[in-house]
Amino acid sequence: MLKTPQEYVDGVLAGDRLLLARTITLIESALPAHQELARNIVEMLLPHTGKANRIGITGVPGAGKSTFIESFGSMLTEQGHRVAVLAVDPSSSRSGGSILGDKTRMARLAVDRQAFIRPSPSGGSLGGVARRTRESMLVCEAAGFDVIIIETVGVGQSETTVASMVDFFLVLMIAGGGDELQGIKKGVLEMADAIVINKADGDNRLRAELARKEYSNALHMLMPASANWTPPVLTCSALEESGIEEIWQRIGEHHRIMSECGEMAEKRATQALDWLSFLLDDGLRRWFQTTAEVVAHLPRLQEEVAAGKTTPTAAAATLLATLHGRDG
Amino acid sequence: MAQHPQHQQWLKLTEKQMKGRPTSELEWLTPEGIRIKPLYTAEDLEGLESVNTLPGLAPYLRGPMATMYTGRPWTIRQYAGFSTARESNDFYKKALAAGQKGLSVAFDLATHRGYDSDHPRVYGDIGKAGVAIDSVEDMKILFEGIPLNEMSVSMTMNGAVIPILAGYIVAAEEQGVDLAQLSGTIQNDILKEYLTRNTYIYPPGPSMRIVSDIMAYCSQHMPKYNTISISGYHMMEAGANSVLQTAFTMADGVEYVRAALKSGLDIDAFAPRLSFFFGIGMNFFMDIAMLRAARFLWHRLMQQFSPKDPRSSMLRTHCQTSGWSLTEQDPYNNIIRTTLEAMTAVLGGTQSLHTNSFDEAIGLPTDFSARIARNTQIIIQEESEVCHVIDPLGGSYYLESLTASIVNEAQKIIDEVEEMGGMAKAIESGMPKLRIEESATRKQARVDQGLDVIVGVNKYRLADEKIDFEIREVPASVRDEQIARIATIKASRDNAAVEKALTELTVAATGNGNLLAAALTAIRARATIGEVSTAMEQVFGRYVASSRCVAGAYSSEYREENTVIAAIRERANRFLELQGRRPRLLVTKMGQDGHDRGFKVVASAFADLGFDVDISPMFQTPEEVAKMAIENDVHVVGVSSLVAGHKTLIPALIEELKRAGGGEIIVVAGGIIPPGDYEALFQAGVQAVFGPGTPIPDSAARTLSLLEAKYLS
Ligand code: B12
Ligand SMILES: Nc1nc2c(ncn2[C@@H]2O[C@H](COP(=O)(O)OP(=O)(O)OP(=O)(O)O)[C@@H](O)[C@H]2O)c(=O)[nH]1
Ligand SMILES: [Mg+2]
Question: Which residues make up the environment of ion ligand 3, defined by Cβ < 5 Å?
Answer without folding.
Answer: A 65-66
